[in-house]
Design brief:
The complex is a heterodimer of chains A (about 110) and B (about 250).
Chain A lengths: L1 H5 L3 H21 L3 H26 L3 H31 L13
Chain B lengths: L1 H24 L9 H14 L5 H4 L6 H23 L3 H21 L3 H25 L13 H22 L16 E4 L7 E4 L3 H8 L4 H22 L4 H7 L1
Antiparallel strand pairs in B: 1-2
Classes of the chains: A mainly alpha (about 110), B mainly alpha (about 250).
């Protein structure tokens, strides 16, 4: 226990990323507000990004950094479009509760 | 909401205990960062070369300050993330998200990804979170029921599934070893860069120059594709968010 606290290595970072991803998953599954769901998706993207950087560091390969940069750009695009959809939905229905968006259900 | 917090706290506790048990059962004696070796090496290095650059001479995991910093930033990351999924107030959730991103940025810095750390802080904690705050301000409505209703059986099943999943993940990840001894957690040091049309030069690992050379070399096509994607996203966001008729905007706001 003492060793696992003071001797921080790659497993620590990987477990941190895994827990972050799981928290994002739980947020997507249990919350009903579309904004919180978008934020949880961002958390999951960040966890995946952190894993990419950890493995880049582990293998001494810099192309992981390039990939992480691409992921950040795609996440920014996703956030912009997702928030635009949230605003459009709110304009039509006055709420962003995903459990009440049942128009496409037959 | 309380049930979610309990579930997540339970999985954190389970993960810690499971990781400790696995670590005690199979200590990584082969890697150079093991405990006994570490103590001897550290003393030797400190005695013989006290004037040397600390980051070069000493693997970062041997430094107790590094361990404390890692736990502090991990706590900030996980705490902010928990804040996001448990708060009823949307602004509080966004602020927790900013704290989580700051922690992630610091963790990137500890992984010697300096450029990515700065980009993370600028793009996420700066730009994307400001976008979220604006949208929260537009739809400023209190939630009546923030968590989807599910029966007690569903919650128990979900909790068990989460605990099992995180336990298996941690048991898997705790045995990850670096592929080569020289890329164990020690500082990476400078790398040699083959500059096109010039002499090879040494740059810092994870610096702007190193990342940029990779980005504009092998990663040039994805980089250009990303620029088109961003253009499409901007046009699409404006097209989606704009009111269909001019009179709509007066009626809603």
């Amino acid at each position: 226990m003492n060793d696992i606290f003071w001797n921080v290595g790659y497993p620590h970072y990987l477990v941190l990323a895994a827990i972050l991803f799981l928290i994002g998953t739980v947020g997507v599954l249990v919350r009903r507000n579309a904004l919180i769901i978008l934020m949880s998706v961002e958390l999951m993207l960040n966890a995946a990004n952190m894993t990419v950087l950890i493995f880049a560091r582990m293998w001494g390969d810099l192309s992981g950094h390039t990939f992480a940069l691409m992921v950040i750009a795609v996440a920014a695009a996703e956030a912009a479009v997702g928030l635009a959809i949230v605003v459009a939905v709110f304009r039509g229905r006055r709420n962003v509760d995903v459990d009440r968006l049942t128009t496409l259900r037959h | 909401m309380r049930i979610i917090a309990l579930i997540v706290m339970g999985l954190l506790a389970f993960g810690t205990v499971g990781g400790a048990v696995a670590y005690a059962a199979d200590p990584p004696s082969a890697v150079p960062t093991a405990g006994a070796e570490r103590a001897g090496k550290q003393v030797n290095i400190v005695k013989t070369t006290p004037h040397m650059d600390r980051r070069e001479s000493r693997p970062s995991s041997d430094n107790p300050g590094t361990a404390l910093l890692f736990w502090a930033f991990a706590a900030a990351t996980i705490g902010g993330a928990l804040f996001v999924i448990t708060r009823r107030n949307l602004i509080a959730a966004v602020m927790g998200m900013v704290g989580s991103f700051l922690g992630i940025s610091a963790v990137y810095m500890m992984l010697y990804a300096g450029f990515l750390s700065v980009v993370q802080m600028l793009v996420y904690a700066g730009a994307i979170m400001v976008l979220f705050v604006f949208v929260v301000m537009i739809l400023n409505r209190p939630e009546d029921e923030p968590v989807a209703p599910s029966g007690r059986a569903g919650q128990a099943l979900g909790g068990i599934a989460i605990v099992y999943l995180v336990g298996r993940l941690i048991l898997l990840l705790i045995n990850v070893r670096p592929p080569r001894a020289e890329t164990a957690i020690a500082a990476p040091g400078p790398i040699t860069l083959n500059v096109p049309g010039g002499a090879p030069e040494k740059v810092e690992w994870g610096s702007v120059k190193a990342v940029g050379t990779d980005l504009f070399g092998p990663g040039l096509f994805p980089f250009e594709a990303i620029s088109i994607l961003l253009l499409v996203a901007v046009v699409g966001a404006i097209a989606i968010a704009r009111p269909l008729h001019a009179s709509d905007e007066e009626g809603t706001s």
